[in-house]
Every structure is written in structure tokens, then in C-alpha cells.
Design brief:
With 241 residues, the protein is mainly α. Helix content is 71%, strand content 3%. The longest helix has 89 residues.
């Protein structure tokens, strides 16, 4: 019994195998053909570059400079310290991947991720996700198997599969929450930008009104001065005549 338990724990904790390059490229194709990526040339170029470099065994080339020059169209004089384009596009890429796997790609067999702190992607194989309306049916199958007197190895495999499915569901929920959070952050940034623009417009209107008022006062002052000069000049002209 202890040996079986140890075997089950080892099989559950063992890391999943790395997907083959062909499978990863097919997964990449599905991502790039999705509406989330199809209309964004920068995100498409960024993701394709880092994935192909990793599959070709050139992960050491996945740096800010090479991404900017070979994927984002920057020139040889690109300076990562002065130009934040790679960091900005990496953030957008992570948000787009989160949206994709939380919606269209929720059942993709391979998850492509770009962890924070680096640009080297990782490829995570996943089990098919059960529909949300049928988890109880899967559990009933497991319980039925136990009731039929299946041996401990079969039970362990069934339980491992069920736990793997639950893990995938948790991952989907995490990606959905990340996607929602990114949308909220983007909406907040848009709101802040709109507020700043309104403040600038209001300040510009106030400045314009003040300038108009000052111009009118100057015009009135000049008119008064001109009238005064004419009145002073008129008597002298009459005496001279």
C-alpha cells in the first residue's frame, strides 16, 4: 500500500514532458490566427520571434536588443535603456495571451507563456478542459470505478486525471482573472488620459478667455488714449488757424 501511494505521489509530482516542436508551432499558428493577434503586427512578430528562437535552441538570443531589431523594426542603434518598446510590447503580449487562453484558446492542448522578468517563452502541455456543466459527471465516473472494485493503480490514475483536469480549470480561471484585470487597468489608463486631456482643454479655454479679455482691455485703453490725444490736439489746431 505504501509503495502504491509513493508511486502515485511521484507520478503526480513528475513534470510533464516538453511538447514537440511541431506541436508548439501548430499551437503558435492557432494563436497568431486568432482575432486577438491577427490585427497586431507587433504582437505577432514579437511572439513568433521568441517562440522560433526558443524552438531552434537559440534562447540566449532572446534579449531586448535582438527583439527590438529583428522583430519590432528598430535600427542597429537601438538602446534598451532609452527606448522601452520591448518592455511595453512584452506587457501587451502577456495580456493578449491571457485573453486568448481565457477565451478562444481555453481548450488548446499547449499553452504558450512568456513569464515576467524574461522574454524566453515556455510551452505547457494541458489536458482537455471539461465543460463547466459536466464536472459532476466526471466525478461520478471516478466514484463508480471505485465502487466496482477496481485495483489501486486504476483508482490512482483516475484520481490523477481528475486532479489534472481540476488544475487546468484553475489555470483557466487564473487566466480569465488576469484578462479581466488587464482590461480594467487599460480602462483606468484611458480614463486617466481622458481626464488629463479634459483638464488641459479646460485650462486652455480659461487661458484663451483671459487672453481675449486682456486684448479687449488693451484695445479700450488704446482707444481712450487716442481720444484724449485728439481732444488735446483740437484746441491747439483752432488757435493756430
Amino acid at each position: 500500500m505504501k509503495a502504491n501511494s509513493a508511486t502515485w505521489k511521484a507520478s503526480f509530482k513528475a513534470p510533464r514532458e516538453t511538447p514537440a516542436a511541431g506541436e508548439v508551432r501548430r499551437a503558435l499558428g492557432r494563436v497568431l490566427e486568432s482575432p486577438i493577434f491577427r490585427d497586431s503586427l507587433r504582437l505577432t512578430s514579437f511572439l513568433k520571434f521568441v517562440v522560433e528562437a526558443a524552438l531552434d535552441g537559440k534562447s540566449d538570443r532572446i534579449k531586448s536588443y535582438t527583439i527590438a531589431v529583428e522583430a519590432l523594426g528598430r535600427g542597429p542603434a537601438f538602446d534598451p535603456q532609452a527606448d522601452p518598446i520591448v518592455r511595453v510590447e512584452a506587457g501587451r503580449l502577456r495580456q493578449a495571451l491571457a485573453r486568448y487562453y481565457a477565451t478562444i484558446g481555453c481548450n488548446d492542448p499547449i499553452l504558450i507563456d512568456v513569464p515576467r522578468g524574461a522574454y524566453v517563452p515556455c510551452f505547457i502541455p494541458r489536458s482537455p478542459v471539461m465543460p463547466m456543466s459536466q464536472p459532476d459527471g466526471r466525478m461520478r465516473e471516478v466514484v463508480a470505478g471505485w465502487a466496482c472494485g477496481a485495483n489501486i493503480n486504476d483508482r490512482s490514475r483516475q484520481l490523477t486525471d481528475t486532479l489534472a483536469a481540476f488544475q487546468d480549470l484553475l489555470e483557466i480561471h487564473r487566466l480569465q482573472i488576469a484578462a479581466i484585470s488587464s482590461e480594467i487597468d487599460r480602462a483606468w489608463q484611458i480614463l486617466k488620459s481622458s481626464r488629463a486631456l479634459l483638464q488641459v482643454a479646460a485650462a486652455g479655454s480659461a487661458d484663451g478667455a483671459d487672453k481675449t479679455k486682456a486684448r479687449l482691455l488693451r484695445q479700450r485703453a488704446r482707444a481712450c488714449m487716442e481720444t484724449t490725444r485728439r481732444r488735446r490736439r483740437a484746441p491747439g489746431q483752432k488757435r493756430f488757424a
